[in-house]
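TL;DR need structure tokens for one chain.
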Amino acid sequence: MDEKKEDKKPKKRINMREQEPLVRAGNFKEVPYAYSADEALEEASRCLSCKKPACRKGCPVEVNIPAFISLIKEGKLLEACHKIKERNALPAVCGRVCPQESQCESLCIVGKKGEPVAIGNLERFVADYEAEKGEVKIPGKPKPTGRKVAIIGSGPGGLTCASDLIQSGHQVTLFEALHKPGGVLSYGIPEFRLPKVIVEREVEYIKKLGVELVLNAVIGNLYTAEELLNDKGYDAMYIGIGAGLPMFLGIPGENLNGIYSANEFLTRANLMKAYLFPEYDTPIKKARNVAVFGGGNVAMDSARVALRLGAENVYLIYRRSEAEMPARKAEVHHAHEEGIKFVLLTNPTRFIDDGKGNVCAVECLKMELGEPDESGRRRPVPVKGSEFRIEIDVAIPALGARANPLLPKTMPDLKLNKKGYILADEETGMTSKIGVFAGGDIVTGAATVISAMGAGKKVARAINEYFKWKYWDTGGFIN
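>> reply
TL;DR here they are.
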């Protein structure tokens, strides 16, 4: 009897091997090593090939997860990657930065009795395998429809939307404001989590599908939306510009030298490779003592980059406890391993000037948790008389981002909410302006890479429907 019960226990999950914490804290190389082919086959064998797979419901881009894992089981590794690409043009990205633990893997049946199948690790493996073998399959070009679509922003949502629309036969142009494509994939996520060569590889695939990419193109400046739709002949537009306006603490001393928004800090380090200065000519201040404020993935990224830039002490200051941190558990775990100092239940009140205009310390106040707020997390309450200082020479607020108003302010007939985000129909992305769709962070506020991709996929489907009916009555979608 006991032997039969033991047989029903799922096999142990195959975790990816990683660089040692003290080694990786000194370099920008990727933290986990990829699966070997044998490890991938062993992990894939844990999948039950369910008749009614729940995992698919947790995938915003609708990947046929059981099908691609079954192909791995059969040793058909290239076919497994091609199966993913039927729905997802960015598998190597998603395999690395998607929060699978709260999406597809959270619904995995195997996870009810043990650890879920490592869907993300397997996705990464087959995507890298395809690239390594040099056998990237480019689908045949469909019959042209004669329709033109302008996509503003080449982040994960824009890339996904472009991929789906080009395969529907439309002419697609991606406009990117920066000198490199990828959006947050390029400027926001550090090299040790998402190597830029991976982003470049995924973008190259989308270009091979036939998508035109225009860099250094700030829409709202180079062209207005009206000019694209009326003068340039585009039949529809997708706005996927993200939420790139950084948020600050709003405390005294925040204008001192040595204080970066996380957006600027990570852009310098990631997109402009400031960590390789002077080989790359974008400088970044290398500090002994760094304070990062926040508890999300961007805060973890900022802290771990600062450590790799040579900081002796990196303090992650967060006003709640670790249990309330919105960051992925794996990122929190890696930060602990690497020596980031977590200063929890602590709130900054002011930055201290060294007398020369530079930050030299941050004054903080201890907090305790009270009743839950509107987010469902317990509200931090100040503890009277608990003020203390931490000596620092760089501070990085990582508190999220808001909508950048540059493009929306050039479109007076585009309806926005009170926070400046574009109002768009939840299912279609249709805005108040005929032929203009929007999705991702510019609609929802800062969220995940995969949620932006899901929005891009929904909008591509909606634009196809829009073209069938020529024009929709927007009154039915945006009031």
